[in-house]
Amino acid sequence: MKVQIVEVGPRDGLQNEKEHVSTAAKIQLIDKLVAAGLHRVEASSFVNPKWIPQLADAEEVLKGITWSSDVTYSALVPNVRGMERAKASGLTEIALFMSASETHNKKNINKTMEETFPVLREVAREALALGMRVRGYVSTVFGCPYEGAVPIDNSRRVTHELLEMGVFEVSLGDTIGVATPKQVREVMEKIVKDTATERLAGHFHDTRGTGLANVAAALDVGIRTFDSSIGGLGGCPYAPGAAGNISTEDLVYMLNGMDWDTGVNLERLLEAGAFIQEELGRELPSKVLKAHLAA
Ligand code: HMG
Ligand code: MG
After folding, report:
1. How far apart are CA 166 and CA 134, in angstroms?
2. How far apart are CA 240 and CA 172, in angstroms?
3. Pick from 6, 83, 86, 127: CA 20 to 30 A from residue 119's CA?
4. Which residues are in the CB-under-5-Å shell of ion ligand 2?
5. What range(s) does the Pyruvate carboxyltransferase domain occupy (predicted)?
6. Which residue, 288, 221, 284, is CA-closest to 254?
7. Helix (H, G, I), strand (E, B) or coil at 60
8. If residue 50 lies in a helix (H) or strand (E), which one and from where to where?
């Protein structure tokens, strides 16, 4: 029984760090995550560096990593300008993103939802023509920091639009970590009515401590791909109060105990967690990392 993990720490994790993290540290982190057996790594973002200064070095990071042939490296791309940068960096996968709520979409990418669709469609068209794989994110599926509850039909519509563009997998985001297992079941059961579970992933932030419980609920619905972040780093700069993603160490520990095969070596993963904790100079949220370092 296999579960795929998409490591988003170098992107979602670091994008919210106030202190500048060196390019060399980002490169080392990615190489360590790959050495731990992660096969899908979101390495950075090709967004406007004025909006996300921490990831302004996306090109340098991708130049510096030791490319492994059995790993898919990816990065966020919001528009055609980002696509040009991704293409020049040699990526074989990109990720599109937008929100299921109007206000978060506007704050995050400066466009209404209707204005966003054609931009993403154009990016997807270019990426697919180059033979790239295109992933998609729907943010604020389980709640919006500005609007509160988000109608499930909004998420269904965005999921449908992304799949129509040729996206191979849509990651459903609990951007601000408000979801509970009951809601995850309700929302995902509705979404899997028109989308196969193999096309979906769960992206849970752990702001309120429900992240891993939400993974368990999504597993029950049939979801087999989850995004997580080393150390539990992370947050969205345009979602006030949003904390880190679920921690990859905690996710792997839990999945191991449930007999799911992730292909990840927990010992090596903990080395990567300890490395980035040391680099950032503060204790990270991962509980398994904490327990490991205390032992
Ligand atoms: P904008 O300012 O409206 O863009 O930003 P614009 O098209 O008007 O261009 C303004 C300037 O930015 C121009 O330069 C462009 O060339 C430049 P100027 O002429 O002023 O010198 N520019 C760029 N430069 C480099 N790369 C680019 C790029 N695009 C424009 N790609 C934009 C619109 C979408 C670019 C901006 O709003 C942006 O970058 N937003 C990104 C915000 C972000 O990264 N948020 C976090 C990621 S999403 C997330 O975390 C959620 C997720 O984890 C899932 C979940 O948790 O739910 C995925
Ligand atoms: Mg996120």
Report:
1. 7
2. 19
3. 6
4. 12
5. 3-270
6. 288
7. helix
8. none
pLDDT tens-digit series, residues 35-65: 999 999 999 999 999 999 999 999 999 999 9
Pocket perturbation via mutation, ligand 1, pick of 48, 109, 150 by most ligand atoms within 8 A of CB: 48
**3-state SS class at 61:** helix
Closest atom of ligand 1 to 85 CA is: 26
- pLDDT < 50 regions, the chain: none
Give the model's pLDDT for residue 82: 98
**Residue pointed to by tokens 């989850």:** 226
Residue 291 CB partners (closer than 8 Å, separation 6+): none
Exposed (0-12), middle (13-18) or buried (19+): which is 243, by Cβ within 10 Å?
A: buried
pLDDT digits (tens, 9 = 90+) for 162-191: 999 999 999 999 999 999 999 999 999 999
pTM listed for this prediction:
0.97
* Residue 230 to residue 8: CA distance in whole angstroms: 8
Q: Tell me which residue has its CA closest to atom 32 in ligand 1.
A: 109
The span from the CA of 240 to the CA of 79, in Å, is: 24
What are the structure tokens assigned to 60, written together? 């340098």
- Classify 139 in phi/psi space as left (phi over 0), alpha (psi -120 to 50) or beta: beta
Q: Residue 235 has what pLDDT?
A: 67
Q: How far apart are the first and last CA of the chain?
A: 30
Q: What is the dihedral of CA 14, 98, 170, 242, to 10 degrees?
A: 40
Q: Closest residue (by CA) to atom 47 of ligand 1?
A: 236
- Residue 236 is a catalytic residue: yes
> Which one of the listed residues 34, 76, 236, 270 is annotated catalytic?
236
Contact assessment for residue 75 and residue 11, using Cβ atoms and an 8 Å cutoff: yes
